[in-house]
Amino acid sequence: MPSTSRIALVTGGAGGIGSAIVRALAADGHRVIAGDIADAGPPEAALPIHLDVTDSASVDEAVTRAERELGPIEILVNTAGWDEFHLFLESDESFWDGIIDLNYKGCLRVCRRVVPGMVERGYGRVVNISSDAARVGSSQEAVYAGAKAAQVAFGKTLAREVAKSGVTVNSVCPGPTETPLLDGMLGAGEASAKMVEALRRAVPMRRLGQPEDTAAAVAFLTSDAAGYITGQTLSVSGGLTMA
After folding, report:
1. pLDDT for 108-137, tens place per residue?
2. pLDDT of residue 181
3. Long-range contacts of 19-24 (CB under 8 A, 24+ apart)
4. Per residue in 215-233, pLDDT tens?
5. Around Cβ 226, how many Cβ atoms within 10 Å?
6. At a CB cut-off of 8 Å and minimum separation 6, what does 120 contact?
7. Model pTM above 0.85
8. CA distance 147 to 233
9. What is the SS3 assignment for 28?
10. Among residues 104, 123, 144, 228, which one is catalytic?
11. In sequence order, what E strands does the chain have?
């Protein structure tokens, strides 16, 4: 989709969905920074950079380096996230803190560092990668779903606060998507295969999502064509969640 070339930062840019977003934005002509604790990113990234969203100093260092080497960040995609399956009544506070710190506060840290510059310059696109679990809940993901729902509410509120400054903020909620994270959560063996098949049957389109499905939505929301869209939440789930 034709768009003005911009400088973009994708957190979690070495992950399954994150790397697909990096590729999609690069294909649209943007110069993309892939920020990740893995110190890596797809070859399409203009700059792979170490970024730990649970550490404010790491966030500041990564953004400072990125803007020094490529220029002011005009597109921010908060993709970094993680989860494990646990029944809530069998989880503990240290697990809750880890999930919330990464999935919710990580988004806050990066936005707090990047968005003021967007406001000052009068332009910005922010997309937060949430989850359909935030919208409808998901068994064994109570804390993750809560953190992702908080991320959506934060995005709506931030959208209201910065709209007059030419900055849009939207959320994309993937449904079950074939990524290394999902593979790791499900494990291997017959039980895992049955769970995957059950997920497929639950989706009206009868397939799991691919990272590129989410990346396509992000490419649109960060494009010039989406300049009048803000505070919205878009599910990319093959019809599993409808609003």
Report:
1. 999 999 999 999 999 999 999 999 999 999
2. 66
3. 19/211, 20/210, 20/211, 20/212, 20/214, 20/215, 21/77, 21/79, 21/129, 21/211, 21/214, 21/215, 21/218, 21/219, 23/215, 24/212, 24/215, 24/216, 24/218, 24/219
4. 999 999 999 999 999 999 9
5. 18
6. none
7. yes
8. 15
9. coil
10. 144
11. 7-11, 31-36, 47-50, 75-78, 124-129, 167-174, 233-236
Q: Give me 142's structure tokens.
A: 């109570």
| The pair of three-digit structure tokens given for residue 69, joined into one six-digit string | 């080497």
Catalogue all structural domains in the chain, each as residue range(s) with its CATH number: 7-236 (3.40.50.720)
Active site residue 123: no
Per-residue confidence (pLDDT) for residue 198, from 0 to 100: 77
The residue written with tokens 């990580």 in the block is 106
Q: Structure tokens of 210?
A: 């691919």
In this predicted structure, what is the pLDDT of residue 203?
86
Ranges in the chain, pLDDT < 70: 1-3, 181-191
Residue that is written with structure tokens 């809940």 in the block: 137
